[in-house]
Design brief:
With about 300 residues, the protein is α+β, with helices and mostly antiparallel strands. The protein is built from 6 helices and 15 strands. The relative contact order is 0.16.
Amino acid sequence: MLFKAKVLCLDGQLNNVINIRLDIKKQDDFTKKQKKIYALAKNSFTIKIQNAIITPEKEKLYLNHQARFKGYIYKTLSQFLFGESPSRLNIYNTKEICVYDGEQLVAFSFFDLGKQSIASILCVFDSQYSKYSLGHFTMMEEITYAKEHAFKYYYPGYILDQSNTFDYKLKMGKFDYYDGGKWRSYESINYENLDGNLIIGRLKEYESKLIKENIEHKWKYYPYFSLGYFQDIIHPFVKSPIHLVLEEDKDEGRYKIVEYDIETDYFNITEVIECPEYDFILKQQDKLINQNDSNQWEKVLRYK
């Protein structure tokens, strides 16, 4: 199964997921600062590019790096790459860049090769080597690999409109972004037309009607909405990322909410129920929860 979210609930707000790619032919040379980072790593460490393989050494580095991740947290590197698939790397042509300080692995990145493109999958580094900007270095090394092997496009994943966590990616060249089936220049992006902003705008329109009728309500973000796309046939999970809560029965774990479905352009008023039996999912996604934000759901929800 494949799932690509258009929005993420992070840091107590709805973030638009903006997928980007770099046309290798249009990529300018690295900046002076980037060249210094690249040269420093090349001169300070041993760099190996080879077929990807998971080792205990990489698993340990991944575990120590988890505090830097945003969003869903996989417990192991193996789960991150393959889930529960027994086929491992058989279905992908995955390469790795390994950075060694002597015999010690201090950073690595994985990237997949396609017919005309490469896709950056993951970068992990030892926090004690942060001054070397090894995340930036491995990204530059991936781009260099793409140039040397005549690939057309480089896909570094996504950025977020409400967070600067991934903005460093945009410094690597002139990127395009994915817009409804077409790739457009990132400079032309219209943030108002992104799904998350459209959802919030429509809910604000509905909220104005609630206010006019003096109906009490409050906003709540739902970080676990992606579960709704992997539907439980008997009890489908809630699949909307943000709600207007009309009624609460916390003792029974029942709520009445207003949600907006951007796919159909409809509002739904529905009753939802907490699913405490899925609390184990919360432990894997604790990075999604802002413990000080009362406007975030802290339970998995399903429709009644």
